[in-house]
Sequence to fold (356 residues):
Amino acid sequence: MSAVAEKYDDIQAGLERTGAAFTVEKMLGVRGITRAAIHEIAARCKPGMVEEDAVEMAKDILAGKGMVQGWHDVYVRFGTNTTKTFGAPSDPGIVLGKDDIFLIDIGPVLEKWEGDGGDTFMTGSNPAYAKCAEDARTLFHLVRKKWEKEKATGKALYEYAEKEARKMGWELNLDLSGHRISDFPHAAIYEGPMNTVDFTPSPLLWVLEIHIRDPAMTFGAFYEDMLLDDSYFA
Amino acid sequence: MGQVVAYSSVHASGAATPDAPCRVAVTLWDGGLPRAIEAFEGEALMPALKRAGLPLLAVCGGKGACGTCRVAFPPAWGARLAPPEKRELRLLAHLKAREGERLSCRITLSGALDGLEVEACE
Fold:
């Protein structure tokens, strides 16, 4: 092995360390609970609801599943707030409409293990919203398949995602560009984004995030899950 | 925690300019030793503690979600802090926090907290 290759292997090994509590079974178990929680939260978001109340409802649902702690905050964003980037405060008092779009982004901790996931939903049949939500999912899987088949680096994955998003008519928000996941807290190992790593991220250790927004910045859609092969998405 | 050693309080002296944020005197007890830290009105306690070198993970960035910025307050100061909201209470209970412990990201500094004493959690 060349010195350069050894150097990159060392970097990858460093950034992909896990803590003492890490197990594949536990990480996949929390992933399953996280995804179920997203759909449970979405089912309880109804037209006329104020976004702040939806966030409280989401926190209650997560607490009921033993996920009181989160490695990041709980985001339920309605309408124009779907364009907001990670961590940005929502405009207050946004009410979910009858033909609206909303997204959910949660990062719960169950005992010692982190979950992370997101998805986008609609209350009506607005074709632009439907396309945006579906394109976020489609783009997630396009990028994931590029990772699986071509062993692309983190950097290459997001270069590809940006190009494909533009072809679909959307702007990709690179503030949300993947990150580590592990036993809590992954931030003690590597807090940086996946789109800067020059190696092929390993399965189970990273999260792929896709946040697309319409060029006029009036709405957006989000999809996020663990970086895993096809067999986990049957 | 015991008697606070001398420190300057720009807030109390009025030395801050009208445009600059007023300082709030805060004493951090770490390893049994007190030290004055730089803190300002309007900011949360967590970033002031981090600037002072206290190794708080604060993984969630100050959103009150992760519980990794816990600190303890002596009873006299604990009673003067704004009471915890539902989420903080729930998280403190979940983490089995001890009496007097709070999330430092949920404490907003104000002139009313001038002279605040805070202790690093183990």
